[in-house]
Amino acid sequence: MSDSTQFDLVIIGAGPGGYVGAIRAAQLGLKTAVVEKDRTYGGTCVSVGCIPSKALLESSEHYVAAQHDFAAHGIKVSNVDLDLPAMIARKDKVVKANTDGIAFLFKKNKITGFQGFGKILKPGSVEVTAADGSKQILTTKNIMIATGSIPVELPFLKFDEKRILSNTGALAMTTVPKTMIVVGGGVIGLELGSVWNRLGADVTIVEYADRLGGQMDPDCMNTLKKCMEKVGVKFFLSTKVTGSKVLSDGVELSYESLSDGKSQTTKADVVLVATGRKAFSSGVGCEEIGIQKDPQGRIIINKHYQTSAPGIYAVGDVVAGPMLAHKAEEEGVAVAEIIAGLHGHVNYDTVPGVIYTHPEIASVGLTEDQAKAQGLEVNVGKFPFMANGRARAKGFTEGFVKIIADKTTDKIIGAHMVGPGVSELIHEVIVCMEFGGSSEDLARSFHAHPTLSEVVREAALAVEKRQRQM
Q: pLDDT at residue 1 above 60?
């Protein structure tokens, strides 16, 4: 075996968990290789997920602002036209910049990349099958599985990426559909439904549950729902999709109300299926070497991310926990540090969740309902953007910040925000929580005036009923 195929760590999958873990491993002196089945590095997040969706969300927000918001600022714009090919091209350029950046970091950190499908033959041995069918064997002291997840496909809504779309197809449409049905009211459905609504599609979101956003704070989700309804998005909650028929000019969808059992049909140009994602570990060799999985198909790991096979670890969407890029990144780093003899650790109490709609939603820690279910007594502080000077100046005052603190210790155990820029504001609460901070700690910290961040401080003050109107 040549030295070029012998490693300290081989990672299967170059998504956030894989590439970030690889960089940390290399920094710690481990000879590291990454095996990636796709042509570029970055995984779903960079290629057909987080990055391209945010690029289109940003572009579509500018389009709406030019149409409706500039006039209030004294800026007159006429004949605003949509150039969708240019918007898609910009999205692709953003994606390429990120994938090229990862390739540069691999080179800089002396990480060896292998293009092909990785399969574990046994502990310490990974087979790489290239696109042309050629194979080579890598030997390694350790293996990390970071193969991510794939969209859940419903049996009666098979993806063709033309009429019935996954997130991949919804990010690559070349024309704006007149009508779109989104099946699933989670992060992907809300974000991509927002994009195409802003660009002119008549969007309807169908959700099986009686609320949007899963376990996200219900007050935040209700605010978002009202804002989206104002711009024309329709919602069918407590509704089960039961069947579909692809027609020459669209898709006919059958659905049933869970409240009264009434069945109906509707038609749309396209249907986006956003009912969740599932772990992808098929063909990686788990079954052959006895790596255990749970009933959902996720790889079972211990607290050190080790699988049931010696020297083999797993991180990210392929294991239990929130399917979030930043969660995968921290797990990848933790594994690299554990292999290097350090104390790799992830604090799952401070994993944030964000929905990049308009308004944005950001959340960390426990909701009020979750705290109550755990038998915790809490104090809650809440403050609206409507009372914030910077929000008024920006012309966007919908939403609020809510901070939840333990009633006895005042330690912050959760924060939930809906409004402008909250995807950035959430992190000051996360840092405070990482240090075991209290609402008083946050309330006594300087916040420049006027800034949106003052809403966070006011919410912290409100925990002790000390908020001030601005």
A: no
362 is written with which tokens?
């950001």
Q: E-assigned strands of 56-134?
A: 112-115, 117-122, 125-129
156 falls within a domain: no
User: Cα dihedral angle (71, 74, 75, 80), rounded to 10 degrees?
Assistant: 10
Sign of CA dihedral 226, 228, 230, 232: negative
Pairwise CA distance, residues 12 & 9, whole Å: 10
Sign of CA dihedral 92, 98, 104, 109: negative
Q: Give the residue numbers spanning the domain of 358.
A: 350-460
Interior/surface letters 226-256, b for 16+ CB within 10 angstroms, e for the rest: ebbeeeebebbbebebeebeeeeebbebebb
Total domains present in the chain:
3
318 lies in some domain: yes
The answer to whether residues 394 and 269 belong to one domain is no
- pTM value is 0.96
Give the angle subtended at the CA of 101 by the CAs of 95 and 105, to the nearest 5°.
150
Closest CA to 185 of 155, 222, 230: 222
Tell me the per-residue pLDDT of 294-312, one tens digit each, with 9 for 90 and over. Answer: 999 999 999 999 999 999 9
Residues 44, 98 share a domain: yes
Q: Which of 253, 275, 297 is the last residue of a domain?
A: 275
What are the φ and ψ backbone dihedral angles of 152, each rounded to 5 degrees? -75, 125
In angstroms, the CA 224 to CA 277 distance is: 23
Q: What is the mean pLDDT of the chain?
A: 97
Which residue has tokens 């993806």? Answer: 159
pLDDT in tens, 350-369: 999 999 999 999 999 999 99
Q: Give the tens place of pLDDT for each residue, 417-447.
A: 999 999 999 999 999 999 999 999 999 999 9
Residues annotated as part of the active site: 449
